[in-house]
Specification:
Elements: E1 2-6, E2 13-21, E3 24-33, E4 40-47, E5 57-58, E6 70-79, E7 87-96, E8 99-109, E9 114-125
Parallel strand pairs: 1-9
Antiparallel strand pairs: 2-5, 2-7, 3-4, 3-6, 6-9, 7-8
């Protein structure tokens, strides 16, 4: 888990699922949990081939309310051409406005057609 530090300003926080490399089809969910990791505060579901999914997902405001909360991203993906291209590089990115605050990522090679990954980031106010 990566700790992402943000400033308490009026500039919102965003999360983004990103396919940086690979010919894959991915379904993903981004959830924001309370500081105890028990309750889901916010939930978003998308696919990497949907234009709306490629955009930044705004997290709840006021921004200060996200202190000590956790962002979780779960993705199931499969290679679209594993005979020719088995590599992948995917990430969960956290932004404040246009500034990238942190990235949790994984890259590798698909040994099977499908794979499931989970990423976590803890949000901390500076």
């Amino acid at each position: 888990m990566q700790t992402v530090r943000f400033q308490n300003t009026n500039t919102p926080l965003y999360a983004k699922f990103n396919v940086k490399k690979g010919i894959i089809s991915a379904a993903y969910s981004i959830a924001l949990f309370d500081k105890n990791g028990q309750d889901i505060i916010f939930y978003h579901k998308g696919k990497n081939n949907s234009p709306i999914s490629e955009s930044l997902i705004e997290l709840p405001t006021p921004v200060s309310s996200n202190h000590e909360r956790f962002v979780r991203c779960i993705t199931d993906f499969k290679g679209m051409d594993t005979a020719q291209n088995k590599t992948y590089h995917i990430s969960l990115e956290i932004y404040q406005g246009n500034s990238l605050l942190g990235t949790v990522e994984q890259e590798g090679e698909l040994s099977y057609n499908q794979k499931c990954l989970m990423f976590f980031s803890k949000l901390m106010e500076v």
